Amino acid sequence: MATCKFCGKEVTPGEFDSLFTEEALSEMPCSPECKENVLNKINLLAKEAELQATRNKIENNPNHLETIEFWMIVAQINACADQIEAIEKLEINTKPSLKWEL
């Protein structure tokens, strides 16, 4: 048995794929579902960062603070944060030593 460093699940090497040796489990997600959760989290974090940069640009222009665009971006950032939180509740990590903070 080996422990997936992404989700913490105990997995028998070769259980999902013959390429998943104990050594491979230390470098890659243990299952297709685990991999999908990791990729979703990475994509959401990237999207959140992009939206946050756009929000910062708008906040730096006082004429645009009350626009619909601004509040739509705030809503999208909050939706990303909610999705990331849901994934974290599954105890999925993209790197075991890195704690994600919003």
How does the SSE layout of this entry go?
Blueprint: E1 2-3, E2 10-11, H1 22-25, H2 32-59, H3 68-89
Antiparallel strand pairs: 1-2
Concise synopsis of the structure shown:
This protein is mostly helical and about 100 residues long.
Explained architecture:
With 102 residues, the chain is mainly alpha-helical. Helices cover 53% and strands 4% of the residues. It has one domain. Helix 2 packs antiparallel against helix 3. Residues 94-102 have low confidence and may be disordered.
Please give a handful of descriptors for the protein shown:
mainly alpha; two-stranded antiparallel sheet; 102 residues; disordered C terminus; rod-shaped
The global form is rod-shaped
Helices and strands, in N-to-C order? EEHHH
Helix content: 40-55%
Share of residues in strands: under 5%
**Would you count the extended β strands for me?**
2
Helix/strand class: mainly alpha
Strands of the widest sheet, in order across it, are: 1-2
